[in-house]
Design a protein that fits this description.
Layout: H1 3-26, H2 30-63
């Protein structure tokens, strides 16, 4: 694929994502979508905190 072909494909994909985001943000389901994203981000943050704490504990045990 040439550079110009990649640029066109990237532009089309970006435009499609932009249209989809715009549609959801202007729809009645916006609040529902935002709440789901917020819940998922909280779950992901908690998962990362647990992994970080586990790694930190293992590192401290290894160094002790």
């Amino acid at each position: 694929m040439s550079t110009s072909s990649k640029a066109v494909v990237s532009f089309i994909v970006g435009a499609a994502v932009g249209v989809a985001v715009g549609y959801f943000l202007n729809s009645d389901k916006k609040d529902e979508l935002v709440e789901k994203l917020r819940d998922q981000s909280e779950k992901l943050k908690e998962k990362w905190r647990k992994k970080k704490d586990q790694f930190q504990d293992e590192l401290e045990n290894e160094l002790a």
